[in-house]
């Protein structure tokens, strides 16, 4: 309960929320001339205001309508807090303005703005019924599926869609459509959308979210989630769920389901989200008929927290944690791709364990997870740390429904899972294209000279150093760096080679166009030079004009809306998900080196009289063998990224490839020549079927094409069929926007098009073995 010391001097308006353990004191005792002196001044708290728990409000404070005082704040005497303002801290200071604050009259019209079909969809999603079956007569009394967990799912959807935080005791009153409508009106005024978007959104634009989902992480998560929730029913129908994410946890996790589905759908990954039985992790991992086992084509997620592992009989948590870990190891040995969370900080006010025990358990858990092959670690820890331990917990919901976290945590946790899912199912961007002036350094090198640039360990130059450090980290992770700058080339390289504070060096750059041409044209040339699609590029430039020109003429490129203040450059880059990769392969770590070698090959080709002499002089060596466990991450990566020379265009995950390996032969091709090692550049998945060899997958990295290596790979597949006594090779072809090349190649190699999507060849008509390629083959079991 709040502590109201001077009720006769405290004026509290309508529908004010005051948290527990608040101290509201309208008087003070001071020492004046050696005497104790009593002074007082009224406190005024306006309508619809919210004061977080454990706050102190001093005498003479005036809080206007709709203001928020964050939990644990100390509002000093005579402070004036304006309408719709948010204050916090000790002493409390102004944080932001609630731009979307609405008065009571506006709130009364809110329900009228709600599309009934949208509300029906929220209810239907929670109780797993078609939206057309939701009526005024349907409620929790006549629908068994409308249980307490369904009500929590409805509350989570209301938060996602309208930013309404439903008080814990009100959640279980959400038992009909009418009660939901009434709650929207009654509670929207107490907790409105966070309007701090302008502080964290590129260019301060709060009006709309971008069409390109890769840019969504740059925007305020609550605003994005609300916008995604406003998708029309037509759009939702077009993106029906094809796969399922099953979440198993030691605590109630249903509130994250709405956010997870919305964000996955935004990235064109229409997953449905289901939940295993409460606190049945070991059973879900080990039972032969569990939700995890029955979800072979989807993703499974394990969430836990220290509070659920440590108990009176297990004071360090090692017994339960060890049992759970063994179940995870057992499951991952049979099926890869499991998502497991690390352990977040303790937030429960009811937890009685010791901090040292908790930290030892968290560290041990992280170390053990990192040893398990084939799992993805979800950074639950960072989600809670970002929100803050005090703001992360919800004691009431933990007591009532075993849901220990605030709506903010559940929303951010759903978004964090989406980020991991995106890295599993979607390819990462390959190229970061960078402007130079006022992007890599402050100032214009052509005007300010190398000595006049802002680039140092002090402000403002430190902003650019920090940005360069983050760019270099991306390069170490396999991202290619290219320069696209309107400058004199000599001036730019002078900075790279001679400025003492440069983090990036010339050797870090895989390609460049430093001239006065349109940057869109330069990007097209670089894409051709690197043999990559424009959709692999991310473009960063401080100039809105240059960004608009690139967006207009090369819409395939992801264009980052950079903030005006360079101090936020590194932060903006760190928020992007598009460079996330499932795993770092050997080829990724040396990608820039591979591009340098490719340039050497092009230069060498110019000095050779004809193509045949060039190919013979390359001294090509192709090693073709059955894939081993260490090759599979690269195999997965090639299925995800290869668009041109790719027969099937089927994108596969690591668990899918591991399952395929049990019944098919996966061939890989490693290539090297006189200039260096190309790495693993080819994949073939072969399956004998009814006297024929089914060519499920036939792909090659575009940087290995045009050297006769594809002929060598296909020759090996024919030889494989001969040794298996098979008569024909069947090549199902899935047409895409850029893979006609592989179809043309097969037709030139003697295949015939029997159907629009099927090519066939007689094994007896094997292509010739290319003489200029030395082949090391081991593909037979």
What's the short version?
The protein is of the alpha/beta class and 781 residues long.
Layout of SSEs?
Elements: E1 3-4, E2 10-12, E3 17-18, E4 23-24, E5 27-32, E6 35-40, E7 43-45, E8 50-51, E9 56-57, E10 62-63, E11 68-69, E12 74-75, E13 80-81, E14 85-88, E15 93-97, H1 104-108, H2 110-113, H3 116-127, H4 148-162, H5 168-171, H6 177-187, H7 197-200, H8 221-229, H9 233-238, E16 243-249, H10 257-266, E17 271-275, H11 281-286, E18 299-303, H12 306-309, H13 318-334, E19 338-341, H14 355-370, E20 375-378, H15 380-387, H16 389-392, H17 395-401, H18 407-425, E21 431-434, H19 445-448, H20 461-476, E22 480-485, H21 489-498, E23 509-514, H22 519-530, E24 537-540, H23 544-553, E25 558-559, H24 569-575, H25 586-589, H26 591-606, H27 611-618, E26 620-626, H28 632-641, H29 654-661, E27 665-673, E28 676-689, E29 692-700, H30 709-723, E30 728-732, H31 740-748, E31 752-755, E32 758-762, E33 773-778
Parallel strand pairs: 1-4, 2-7, 3-8, 4-9, 7-10, 8-11, 9-12, 10-13, 11-14, 16-17, 16-18, 18-19, 19-20, 21-22, 21-24, 22-23, 24-25, 26-33, 29-30
Antiparallel strand pairs: 5-6, 14-15, 26-27, 27-28, 28-29, 30-32, 31-32
Helix pairs in contact: 3-4, 4-8, 10-18, 15-18, 20-24
**What proportion strand?**
15-25%
Classified in CATH, the superfamily of the largest domain is SGNH hydrolase
CATH topology of the largest domain: Rossmann fold
Q: Which class of the largest domain in CATH terms? A: Alpha Beta
Mean pLDDT: 86
How many structural domains?
5
Q: What is the count of DSSP helices, taking H or I runs of 4+ residues? A: 31
Report the count of strand segments.
33
Largest sheet: 8 strands, mixed
Provide the spatial order of strands within the biggest beta sheet.
31-32-30-29-28-27-26-33
> Which parts are unreliable, with pLDDT below 50 for 5 consecutive residues or more?
102-111, 189-201, 203-207
CATH architecture of the largest domain: 3-Layer(aba) Sandwich
**Alpha-beta content class:** alpha/beta
**Roughly what percent helix?**
25-40%
Distance between the termini: 74 Å
What's the overall geometry? globular
């Amino acid at each position: 309960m709040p502590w109201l010391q001077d009720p006769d001097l405290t004026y509290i308006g309508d529908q004010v929320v005051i948290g527990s353990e608040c101290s509201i004191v309208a008087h003070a005792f001071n020492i004046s001339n050696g005497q104790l002196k009593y002074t007082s001044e009224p406190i005024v708290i306006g309508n619809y205001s919210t004061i977080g728990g454990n706050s102190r409000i001093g005498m003479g404070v005036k809080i206007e309508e709709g203001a928020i005082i964050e939990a644990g704040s100390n509002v000093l005497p005579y402070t004036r807090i304006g309408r719709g303002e948010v204050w916090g801290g000790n002493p409390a200071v102004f944080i932001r303005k609630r731009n979307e604050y609405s008065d009571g009259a506006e709130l009364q019209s809110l329900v009228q703005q709600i599309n009934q079909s949208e509300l029906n969809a929220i209810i239907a999603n929670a109780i797993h019924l078609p939206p057309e079956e939701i009526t005024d007569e349907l409620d929790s009394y006549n629908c068994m599926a409308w249980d307490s967990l369904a009500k929590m799912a409805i509350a989570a959807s209301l938060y996602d869609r309208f930013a309404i935080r439903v008080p814990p005791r009100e959640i279980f009153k959400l038992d009909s459509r009418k009660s939901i409508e009434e709650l929207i009106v009654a509670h929207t005024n107490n907790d409105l959308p966070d309007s701090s978007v302008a502080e964290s959104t590129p260019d301060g634009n709060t009006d709309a979210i971008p069409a390109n989902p890769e840019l969504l992480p740059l925007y305020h998560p609550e605003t994005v989630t609300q916008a995604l929730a406003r998708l029309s029913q037509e759009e939702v129908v077009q993106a029906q769920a094809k796969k399922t994410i099953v979440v198993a946890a030691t605590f109630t996790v249903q509130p994250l389901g709405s956010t997870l589905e919305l964000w996955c759908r935004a990235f064109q990954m229409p997953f449905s989200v289901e939940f295993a039985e409460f606190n049945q992790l070991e059973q879900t991992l080990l039972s032969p008929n569990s939700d995890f086992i029955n979800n072979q084509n989807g993703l499974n997620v394990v969430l836990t927290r220290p509070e659920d592992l440590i108990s009176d009989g297990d004071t360090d948590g090692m017994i339960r944690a060890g049992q759970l870990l063994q179940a995870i190891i057992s499951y991952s040995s049979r099926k890869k791709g499991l998502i497991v969370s690390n352990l977040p900080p303790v937030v429960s006010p009811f937890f009685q364990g010791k901090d040292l025990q908790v930290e030892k358990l968290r560290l041990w858990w992280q170390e053990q997870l990192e040893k398990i092959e084939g799992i993805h670690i979800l950074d639950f820890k960072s989600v809670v740390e970002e929100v803050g331990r005090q703001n992360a917990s919800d004691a009431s919901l933990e007591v009532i429904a075993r849901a220990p976290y605030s709506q903010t945590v559940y929303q951010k946790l759903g978004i964090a899972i989406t980020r991991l899912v995106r890295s599993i199912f979607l390819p990462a961007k390959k190229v970061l294209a960078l402007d130079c002036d006022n992007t890599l350094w402050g100032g214009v090198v052509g005007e300010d000279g190398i000595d006049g640039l802002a680039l140092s360990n002090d402000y403002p130059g430190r902003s650019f150093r920090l940005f360069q450090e983050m760019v270099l980290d991306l390069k170490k992770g396999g991202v290619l760096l290219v320069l696209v700058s309107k400058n004199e080339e000599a001036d730019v390289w002078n900075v790279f080679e001679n400025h003492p504070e440069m983090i990036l060096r010339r050797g870090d750059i895989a390609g460049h166009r430093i001239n006065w041409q349109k940057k869109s044209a330069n990007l097209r040339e670089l894409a051709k030079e690197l043999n990559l699609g424009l959709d692999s590029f991310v473009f960063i430039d401080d100039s809105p004009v240059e960004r608009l020109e690139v967006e207009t003429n090369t819409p395939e490129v992801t264009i980052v809306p950079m903030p005006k203040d360079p101090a936020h450059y590194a932060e903006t880059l760190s928020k992007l998900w598009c460079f996330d990769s499932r795993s770092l392969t050997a080829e990724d770590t040396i990608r820039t080196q591979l591009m340098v070698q490719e340039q050497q090959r092009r230069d060498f080709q110019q000095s050779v009289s004809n193509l045949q002499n060039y190919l013979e002089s390359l001294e090509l060596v192709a090693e073709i063998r059955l894939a081993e466990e260490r090759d599979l991450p690269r195999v997965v990566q090639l299925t995800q990224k290869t668009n041109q020379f790719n027969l099937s265009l089927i994108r596969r995950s690591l668990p899918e490839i591991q399952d395929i390996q049990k019944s098919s032969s996966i061939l890989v091709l490693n290539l090297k020549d006189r200039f260096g090692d190309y790495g693993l550049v080819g994949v073939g998945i072969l399956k004998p079927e009814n006297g024929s060899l089914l060519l499920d997958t036939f792909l090659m990295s575009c940087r290995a094409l045009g050297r006769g290596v594809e002929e060598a790979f296909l020759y090996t597949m024919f030889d494989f069929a001969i040794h298996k006594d098979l008569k024909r090779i069947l090549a199902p072809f899935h047409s895409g926007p850029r893979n006609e090349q592989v179809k043309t190649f097969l037709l030139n190699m003697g295949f015939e098009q029997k159907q629009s999507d099927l090519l066939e060849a007689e094994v007896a008509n094997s292509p010739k073995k290319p003489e200029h390629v030395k082949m090391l083959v081991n593909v037979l079991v």
